[in-house]
Write a structure and sequence with these properties.
Elements lengths: L2 E7 L3 H12 L4 E5 L11 E4 L2 E3 L5 E4 L1 H6 L14 E4 L5 E4 L4 E2 L3 H25 L11 H15 L3 H10 L4 H8 L3 H12 L12 H7 L4 E3 L1 H14 L3 E4 L3 E9 L2 E9 L4 E9 L3 H9 L6 H8 L7 E8 L14 E4 L3 H12 L8 E5 L14 E8 L11 H18 L3 H4 E7 L1 H8 L35 E3 L13 H11 L1
Parallel strand pairs: 1-2, 1-13, 2-10, 6-15, 13-19
Antiparallel strand pairs: 3-4, 5-9, 6-7, 7-8, 11-12, 12-13, 14-17, 14-18, 15-16, 16-17
């Protein structure tokens, strides 16, 4: 039987980041993925002849440190400037850049400067904690205490007034924060989006939305396809082997003098591959309940894994377009576009989903990734990708063809109010509910963060207190996916942190 130092399950971006660091650290590394191509939810696939798209349509805050460490620029990776636009059906638009806003009144423009300076100070203070292991609950070790002390010092350096303000707003409902600063409805909804997307929360929900906004203010933007190809090249150049079309059926777990330990994997074709350790970028429920098996786990831990909230609330819409659509209020649709005319529109869409219904008036984030990467569509044509909220994983009455068709049509109708000619440009479309995402990408609940980004499922509680430091109750088994600290999105942080835990 062939043997590796580390086997990584899943060639998503975190798995590739982890593989690159481990291989650079001198390990013999094998990455296994059931899909035909690497990337996971960020993997590009063809949904109409000549048209390609990823479920994760944009890279909003990939960690700059990782890009530098792995020298991703030498493999074609490059950051891009990407604006954020808020739209409504009347043709009004708010353009948000890294430094200012356009389309709002003078008072809101002035308030945005104050808001941005405050939030950037908080985001800068928190940023180092995303790229390090969070100490476990109750730890008294020197290294762990120093880690807490460093974060505390960062926050103390904010000054007494800012420290108080941080503590006040950290769990504030997004609506309250927006109302404190701004008057323009579109601006409020647009800025609130990054605190809510992918979460089971609405603007009035007190939880972690402000922390999510701060989380997404770090790092850099990039092309999804460019990021995945660069990570693959970096991992392979360092010596990692990437094997696609290789689905893991279960972990090999053997009993020894110190108890059970992970010693490799068994593939669905029957092949067994041995390793000193296994690192899983799959979601926690898949990793522990399916791959490891409950017979190898303590019942208390198993129950905590079962209770993780991981049902998705975001659907994906892909459009193959025979040209570049024109959006009212925009010169060029080359950034992220939010169609949510006001905070109440987001709230009402969430209300529908809470009771198992897909929203009658969906809100969404749109991007046209073919503007940044021309390989995604034929010359002169484009792909549109949208995150549609809120669409429940468990719909009342189930996801029938008719139910899927209705929310698909509502989503296109919503886009058409802002881009009136888009219907004539549509060559084909694809609509994926969270249940479809679960089936297509093998992620429990179709949740792209693997588990909810909520205050009780963050930091040293992500995914549980026993597995929040990337090692797990099963010796030789580690986690490196979005279900562990710091969370989802295309940051690479979980893969980075897990690799450093393995190598320490």
């Amino acid at each position: 039987m062939d043997r590796y130092d580390s086997i990584i399950i899943g060639a998503g971006h975190n798995g590739l980041v982890c593989a690159a660091y481990l291989a650079r650290g001198g390990q013999r590394v094998l990455v296994l993925d059931a899909a035909d191509t690497p990337g996971g939810l960020a993997g590009t696939r063809e949904f109409h002849p000549g048209f390609h798209v990823a479920a994760a349509h944009s890279v909003n805050h990939f960690a700059s440190k990782i890009a530098a460490d792995l020298n991703l620029a030498s493999y074609g990776y490059q950051s891009i400037d990407q604006s954020l636009a808020g739209l409504n059906a009347d043709g009004d638009a708010i353009i948000v850049t890294s430094d200012n806003i356009r389309g709002a009144g003078a008072d809101d423009s002035e308030a945005y400067g104050k808001y941005l300076r405050l939030m950037r100070r908080f985001a800068t203070a928190l940023e180092p904690s995303w790229l390090k292991k969070i100490p476990p609950i109750g730890s008294t070790g020197i290294a762990d205490l120093m880690s807490f002390a460093q974060l505390g010092l960062k926050l103390r350096l904010l000054g007494k007034d800012d420290m108080r303000e941080f503590m006040r707003i950290a769990t504030l409902p997004t609506r309250d924060l927006m109302d404190e600063f701004f008057e323009n409805d579109i601006l409020k909804a647009t800025l609130a989006w990054d605190g809510l997307v992918g979460a089971r929360m609405a603007p009035r929900s007190p939880n972690s939305s402000v922390l999510a906004m701060l989380y997404r203010m770090s790092g850099e933007t990039a092309s999804v396809a460019g990021l995945i190809s660069a990570l693959q090249a970096a991992a392979e150049s360092a010596g990692a082997e990437i094997r696609c079309g290789a689905e893991v059926e279960n972990l090999l777990i053997e009993a020894g003098a110190q108890g059970v330990a992970a010693t490799g994997v068994r593939l669905t074709n029957g092949d067994e591959i041995a390793a000193d350790r296994v690192v899983s970028s799959a979601d926690p429920k898949t990793t522990f309940l399916d791959l490891a098996g409950v017979r190898n786990l303590d019942i208390g831990f198993t129950n905590r894994i079962r209770r993780l909230r991981c049902n998705g609330y975001v659907a994906k819409l892909h459009l193959a377009l025979d040209g570049l659509p024109s959006f009212r209020g925009l010169d060029r649709p080359d950034g992220r576009m939010i169609i949510a005319p006001e905070l109440d529109a987001i709230e009402f869409a969430f209300d529908d989903a809470k009771y198992g219904e897909s929203s009658a008036s969906p809100v969404m984030e749109i991007a046209i990734p073919s503007l940044q990467d021309t390989s995604l569509a034929p010359d002169g044509q484009h792909v549109l990708s949208a995150h549609v909220m809120y669409v429940p994983y468990e719909r009342k009455g189930g996801w029938t063809d008719d139910a899927r068709s209705r929310i698909h049509d509502r989503a296109i109708e919503t886009i058409a109010r802002c881009a009136p000619d888009i219907r004539e440009q549509i060559l084909d479309s694809e609509f994926l509910t969270p249940a479809d995402l679960e089936r297509e990408y093998r992620v429990t609940g179709g949740h792209w963060h693997h588990t909810e980004f909520a205050i009780d499922q963050m930091l040293m509680m992500r995914p549980t207190y026993e597995a929040a430091q990337y090692s797990t109750p099963i010796p030789g088994l580690y986690l490196c996916g979005a279900g562990c600290h710091p969370g989802g999105d295309l940051t690479g942080a979980a893969g980075h942190n897990a690799a450093h835990e393995v190598l320490r």
